TrEMBL record:
This is Endonuclease III. Binds 1 [4Fe-4S] cluster. Coiled coil: none annotated. DNA repair enzyme that has both DNA N-glycosylase activity and AP-lyase activity. The DNA N-glycosylase activity releases various damaged pyrimidines from DNA by cleaving the N-glycosidic bond, leaving an AP (apurinic/apyrimidinic) site. The AP-lyase activity cleaves the phosphodiester bond 3' to the AP site by a beta-elimination, leaving a 3'-terminal unsaturated sugar and a product with a terminal 5'-phosphate. InterPro entries: DNA_glycosylase, Endonuclease-III-like_CS2, HhH-GPD_domain, HhH_base_excis_C, HhH_motif, Nth. Residues 1-21 are annotated as: Disordered. PROSITE patterns: ENDONUCLEASE_III_2.
Amino acid sequence: MPTKPKKPNHGTATAPRRARLMPPAQAEAFIRALAVANPAPETELIYHDPFTLLVAVVLSAQTTDAAVNKCTPALFAAAPTPERMAALGAEGIGPYIRTIGLWQGKARNVAALARDLVEKHGGQVPGDREALEALPGVGRKTANVVLNVAFGQETMAVDTHIFRLGNRCGLAPGKTPREVEEKLVKRCPPELLRDAHHWLILHGRYVCKARAPECWRCVARAYCNYNDKVLAPPVK
Ligand code: SF4
């Protein structure tokens, strides 16, 4: 009996497959290919200003943007400012976000960060990393998203999609999100750095997917170093 060919293992979220590092010119060509395909990329989270962006990003940890977008319109209508969010408190925030993962801890963090914004920052979201990372529930990745999207800074927030993609295609292989972030910042052409964060997240989310990359429709395939490219859609 002929044996079925083994399916390639495309890796896991914490241990993605790692390809050899692309030379700088190839890395630039890879990013430029994504740029041409999507000239004006944007975050998929619903937000109105730096405060609602910060809350949406805190809520999005370990859940999808789509799940966050289902509950934030009602939450932001009830509490559009740090003052109103602090007044709502964790108990008042909880019922709005019960459908997303880790909602109890997130409700506590959002109430506490709103209080900190009121008490320490005059009700404004600070535009510097140190102050952002001192807020409850805000780590380096969240700070990077807020600095990039709300303050126009050239930061690279490495989430699970960018971590996987950076390793899998050889753009920025690294053992930790911080290592991948530092390589990407170094390798990305400066004028593309701000938008590269969006291009890479969207590419990882919709094309270079966790379970199996959809290489047959990848606009950057010619520059990718991954050895187990999937060159045709699965037969149904
Ligand atoms: S060719 Fe495949 S593995 Fe490489 S970046 Fe594109 S989707 Fe990912």
